[in-house]
Amino acid sequence: MFTHPLFPERTRVNRKHLKIFSDLLSLPTAPLHEHRVVAYIRDFSEKRGLPVKEDRFGNLIVRYTRGKPSPVALTAHTDHPGFTVHDVHGRQLEAEWLGGHDRNHFPGSRVLIQTHDGPVTGRVSSTIGKTRRFEITARRRIQDIEGAYGYWNLPPFHLEGDRITTKAADNLVGCAAILAALDNLVTQKEKADLYAVFTRAEEVGLVGAAGLVEAKTLPKRIPIIVLEASKELPGALIGNGPVIRVGDYMSIFDPSIEYTLHDLAKGIASADRQFAFQRQLMSGGVCEASIYVLHGYQVGALAFPLGNYHNESKRWPAPEYISRTDAINMIRLCTEIALHPPEGDTRDPIRKYWASRYADFRQRVLDSR
């Protein structure tokens, strides 16, 4: 079982971590338009002296290495459902929605359009068709639509009590937690070998992750832990801690990796009463771990329980939200994963336990036949 020493004080959340969340969640993003988030991650890493690589699909790989420990990868995607603009006629725009959406939000909902001349507000002025095309009436004329994109016009970031509310928790909160863990490692000069991986275009079919596999960006020997923000479900409640995600709607993940994560989380909880976690198969959607499973990677997953998944609400789009306490504990868990990565098959304690039970009753079962 987990026996490594733990130092709770070194991974407590601080104002610097909250600023990472505030900065990142406030940035514009949409599938195929993640450049502002990617630029922030690159700048954040380079300021801390961390090397940054980019594969041909635009996925970023930031590496922290000190000493010669076993490697592990933490990964999150940089996009959130939104739209790209294809055509303009005066103030009327033709756009294509990318990612999950609720048809009840078309028409009438407010949007924010990112252009070369700055953000422009507008409203959806049509229903959405099978091709995901719809129309927007912009507040003013837009002269240049090259590269224009947008999303629901919702508050970028707001913290009140234990609730973090934002236009795009899924999955910028995962990116923020990984960056905060990197900051912990750099500040404390910890011995670790962490690959922090930030993928693109998850919301349109896990495309960045599939590209990462095609490009062989990560060696298969490196265990991958996928971070996500996933719809709150029974057993995965907002405020009760980050979730060790056993699987998603499509797949069950690596049981050996899951056991290691579970054992680590139990060890942290026994040493620190303020640490809480949950364990659940979160079937509200499919995450990038399913792609890695299909291609033979060792993969586990963590998740933030999420409110208003994909901004869905009864009538109008609503901000997503997570628990601040869950964010604190997710940063803690990510940091400890980097310090105590999965190595080999860690299930020997389970084998020994059941072997002893078998030995105790084997002959009695045979004799009672």
Can you tell me about this structure?
This protein is an alpha+beta fold and 369 residues long. The chain folds into two domains: 8-80 and 156-339, Zn peptidases (Aminopeptidase, 3-Layer(aba) Sandwich); 82-152, Thrombin, subunit H, CATH 2.40.10. It is built from eight helices and 17 strands. Helix 1 runs antiparallel to helix 3 and helix 3 packs across helix 7. The chain is globular, with a radius of gyration of 22 Å. The model is unreliable at 1-5 and 7-11 (pLDDT under 50).
Summarize the structure.
The protein is of the alpha+beta class and 369 residues long. It has 8 helices and 17 strands. Strands 1-2-12-3-13-16-14-15 form an 8-stranded mixed β-sheet, sandwiched between helices. Strands 4-5-8-7-6-9 form a 6-stranded antiparallel β-barrel. A 3-stranded antiparallel β-sheet has the order 10-11-17.
Question: How would the blueprint of this fold be written?
Answer:
Layout: H1 15-25, H2 35-47, E1 52-54, E2 60-66, E3 71-77, E4 82-89, E5 92-98, E6 110-115, E7 118-124, E8 133-138, E9 149-152, E10 158-160, E11 163-166, H3 169-188, E12 192-199, H4 207-214, E13 224-231, E14 243-245, H5 255-271, E15 278-280, H6 289-294, E16 299-306, E17 320-323, H7 324-339, H8 348-367
Parallel strand pairs: 3-12, 3-13, 13-16, 14-15
Antiparallel strand pairs: 1-2, 2-12, 4-5, 4-9, 5-8, 6-7, 6-9, 7-8, 10-11, 11-17, 14-16
